[in-house]
Amino acid sequence: MVIASVTGTPGDFQGFEAQVAQLRSAGVIVMPSNYQASLLALKIMEKVTGTTTGALGSKPQGAAVQPKADAQASGAETAAQAASAGASDSASLNLVGPKRILSLFTQGLKFINLGLESFAKNLAACETPIVHMDWVPPAGGKPELIQVLDRLENRATVDIEKANAEAVERILSGKPIIKGIGTALETIPGMKPNLFLHAGPPVTWEKMCGPMRGAVIGGLLYEGLVKTEEEVLALAESGKIEFSPCQDHAAVGPMAGIVTPRMSVWIIEKETFGNQAYATLNEGLGKVLRYGAYSQEVLDRLRWMEQELAPILQRAIEHHGHVDMRSLIIKALQMGDEGHKRNRAGTSLIIRELAPRLVMLDEKKEALSRVLSFMHQNDHFFLNLTMPSAKSVLMPAEEVPGSTVITAQGRNGTEFVIQVAGLKGRWFTGHAGIVKGLYLPGFGSDDAAPDIGDSVITETSVIGGVAMAAAPAIVKFVGGTPEDALRFTREYKIPIRDFRGTPTVIDVRRVVEKGILPVINTGIAHKKNGIGMVGAGLVKPPVNCCQDALKALAKIYTT
């Protein structure tokens, strides 16, 4: 039996009445105050032992104590009667009653604090002995989710731990390597001349957010399918252009994530399994296509990347041979990157890797200079290599029945989605949140589009936001403090953590049970198309994605 009281008022933001209702639905007897809860507990002890002990110092002996609701009173009486069969004799009364309670104040108080650590800190500040336990009810105390977790724990038709071990083994086996650069139409599975890929889950033109619409407009202009913005709108609305998620084609796209047939894409292959993943080459920051900008400057840059940058890099890779991306990512994290919003070390490493081959090519010095200068000036160049590397690493785990490992995440500026290994191909969606962070001069939160992009695939492979301890300096870009960077981090070794590794995977069961959502650091696009990047910050996925995935797993894999 559990007796409790809830401290607060109906106006508290935690939802006082909802908390009380949750406790009662779980069988807890909730009293209006600590005092009344203590009296009820004492009276139940008296009933159990058949002996009257007296009051707690203020109520006359034998005074009746009535719970707030008759249902609770009857529940308490029934529980007391049931417990009486195993009750000890009257000697147990030494454990209760006013003398025992008053002795607490004469012998010194000692506390165990469960829940909010601030309570423990206040007592510690008063030099009171206190032990804090970092505990919260599983699944936020929600009975339905607790039952789902219990079913997966006790009634699963597959060995979930074994399935997850296999998923982890598949993720860790082999390494991602750069195979080369190709064109999207010739390289990406299922690509067609009239198909545009985008970030996140499926979305129609009518429901696209501002930056994604802007990127589509830029993509149509880049492809030469239209000449004016008016023609773009007519073509986009005609249904002649098809749209599909990048991740349904083994690709990933940062921010809006638009991939058009002519664009050049990195080809990343995971050794051992031989699966490939793809991403466009990174344009840089500011006014770029992935942030929804489509000015002439943006289009000229895309055409130069297609006609000069990509062919030269491809020839350098042919001379170099396959590039080990796992090795480069590990080095980058030990040099101050975290693999998502800070890529300065990784970009430097890929330049060091390819520069000796670049200078040996039979190309004009001016062209080689433009290529090296573009890479050097674009600290985010490495991001579009990290993303498909992460995707390729996770893909083999998608074929493990019963696994609760999250294998994909994405956002399209309207919805946030996840996929889990045991439910291949199924998207679980929630609303895309607003990123909290730092803004470029002249912009603020009112200008921000909702969270967008497939770059969260880096957090899915447990770098990026969950490896921020590797890059404390990033808080100057995305907001927060160096302490936040350490707190968000838990395979990849982090020097400041005494080379402790980050987690290997994200288990959807643990996300729901513990209520701890992975932290994502990301860019912020303007909500209107044509403007581009306005800031960067931190965001978390909506919890209902994980809750819905957990329920679906239980439906399929439990009796």
Give an account of the 3D structure.
The protein has 559 residues and is α+β, with helices and mostly antiparallel strands. Helix content is 40%, strand content 15%. It has 20 helices and 19 strands. The protein has helices at 16-25, 34-49, 70-84, 98-107, 117-125, 143-154, 160-172, 184-187, 210-223, 229-238, 296-320, 325-333, 344-358, 365-377, 383-394, 457-460, 475-478, 482-487, 508-514, 543-557, and strands at 3-5, 29-31, 111-114, 130-133, 176-183, 195-198, 242-245, 264-270, 276-280, 323-324, 406-412, 415-420, 428-431, 436-439, 452-453, 493-494, 500-501, 520-525, 533-539. It has a 4-stranded antiparallel β-sheet. β11 (406-412) and β12 (415-420) form a beta hairpin. It is elongated.
SSE blueprint and pairings:
Blueprint (H helix, E strand, L loop, with lengths): L2 E3 L10 H10 L3 E3 L2 H16 L20 H15 L13 H10 L3 E4 L2 H9 L4 E4 L9 H12 L5 H13 L3 E8 H4 L7 E4 L11 H14 L5 H10 L3 E4 L18 E7 L5 E5 L15 H25 L2 E2 H9 L10 H15 L6 H13 L5 H12 L11 E7 L2 E6 L7 E4 L4 E4 L12 E2 L3 H4 L14 H4 L3 H6 L5 E2 L5 E2 L6 H7 L5 E6 L7 E7 L3 H15 L2
Parallel strand pairs: 1-2, 3-4, 6-7
Antiparallel strand pairs: 5-8, 5-10, 8-9, 11-12, 11-15, 12-13, 14-19, 16-17, 18-19
Helix content: 25-40%
Main sheet makeup: 4 strands, antiparallel
Averaged pLDDT: 86
Count of DSSP H/I helices: 20
Subunit organisation of the chains: single chain
As a percent range, the share of strand residues is: 15-25%
User: Which structural category fits the helices and strands?
Assistant: alpha+beta
Report how far the terminal alpha carbons are from each other.
29 Å
Biggest sheet: strand arrangement: 9-8-5-10
**Unreliable residue stretches:** 55-94, 485-491
Q: Could you tell me the radius of gyration in angstroms?
A: 29 Å
Kindly state the number of beta strands.
Answer: 19
Could you say which overall geometry the principal axes of the C-alpha atoms support?
A: elongated
